[in-house]
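Figure S7 source data.
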Amino acid sequence: MSIDIQQACDAYQRHFKAVPTVAARAPGRVNVIGEHTDYNHGFVLPMAIEHDTVIVGRPRDDNVLCLYAQNLERSAELSLEQRTRNEQEPWTDYIMGVADQLVALNKPVSGADMLVVGDVPVGCGLSSSAALEMAALVFFEQTGGFKLEDAEAALLGQRVENEFLGLSTGIMDQFISRSGKKNHALFLDCRSHAFDLIPAAFEEALFVIANTACPRGLTASKYNERVDECKCAVATLQEYFQSSGSHLRDYTMNDLLACQEMMEDIPFRRARHVISENERTQQACEAMRQGDAALLGALMNASDISLRVDYEVTSRELDIMTAIARECSGCFGARMTGAGFGGCTINLVHRDAADTFCTHLLHHYAEATGKDGDVFLSDPADGACPLAL
Ligand code: GLA
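C-alpha cells for the predicted alpha-D-galactopyranose complex:
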C-alpha cells in the first residue's frame, strides 16, 4: 500500500485526540483501453494503481460525521440527518453521497470521526473520487457490520456520481477500485458486470502513466454532453432498425453505417468511436492475454485517434504528449486515459527503454508546452479493502 497507515493513525490521534479503530483503503485506477464505453454498456480494461485513498477513524454514538482531509487540511462537521451537498467543502460530498446511498439501501450508517489521506493525484483522470467513495464504503461496511457484493458496491458508487453529484458517469472507476487485483487488469462487461482478471505482465513491456499537469476544464458539462450525444445516436438507430437496442453496445459498425444518412455528423462520430472502441477493447484483452505488446500498443494508438477525431475529448496538451511518446523508440502505443479534456496518458513502453522514454517525454513535453509534466510507473494493484490496525 502506498500510504503509511501508522502515519495516518498518528495524524488521526493528533487531530481527534483518540485512537482510530477502523481503517479502509481504495486505489485509483488507470484505464488501459475502453474509453467512454462504460455508459454505453460496452467493455473496459482498467487496472487499479498503487496510489490509494485511506480513511482511518472510529464510530460515534450520534449522527454526526466529523471529517478531516489531511491533504487539504480541511475539516467539516456534517449531520447524517441532512444528507446534502456541501458547497464550502465539496470533498465531503463523496463521503456523504456514499452514506446517503447506504441509507437508501436501509444499511446502518452511524456517525464517525474520519481522517482521509491519500496519494491518488486529484483531477487528472486517475479516479481519486472513486477511490474516496470506495474507501468510504469499506469504512461504513465495517462500522455497520455489513458487506455489499462487489458489483453492488460499484453500482452504489455510480449512483453517488449520477444522483448525488449529477455526473452521468459509468461504472468503470468504482468497479475497478473495488475489484482490482494485483498484477491484473480487469476486463469488464459494463452491461452484465461479468468480468475477467487478465494477467497484465508483459515480458518486454510496462505501462508508463504520464500527467499533462493540466486540470480537466469543463469536464462535467462536456462529459454529460457526450452521454447525451450517444443517446441521440441510439434514438436514430432504434428508429431505423425499429429495434429495442437501448445502448450503443447493441449495434455494430455496419448498423451504424446503414443509417449514416439519417444521423447528424456529431452523434454519428460519437457512435463510431464507441462501437469501434468496444471492438478494440475486446481485441486488446486478447492481446494482453497473449502478452502481445505490439498489438496492444497499436490498439491503444487507434483508440487515441478515435478519441481525438471522433469523440473529441483530447486536449492540445494530451495530443502533444501522445505524439511525443509515439516518436520515442521503445514505445508500443500511447493514448489519453480517463474522461479526457486534460489529465493523463498511458503508454506501453519497452522495459529497457522506460528510463529514456520518461526523460525524453518530459523534456520534449516541457519544450512544446512550457509545462512540467510528470511520469510514474505502477504495477496493477489490489482493489479496496479494510486495513488491520
Ligand atoms: C470517467 C468516468 C467513467 C468513464 C470514463 C471514460 O472516468 O467516471 O465512468 O466513462 O470517464 O471512459
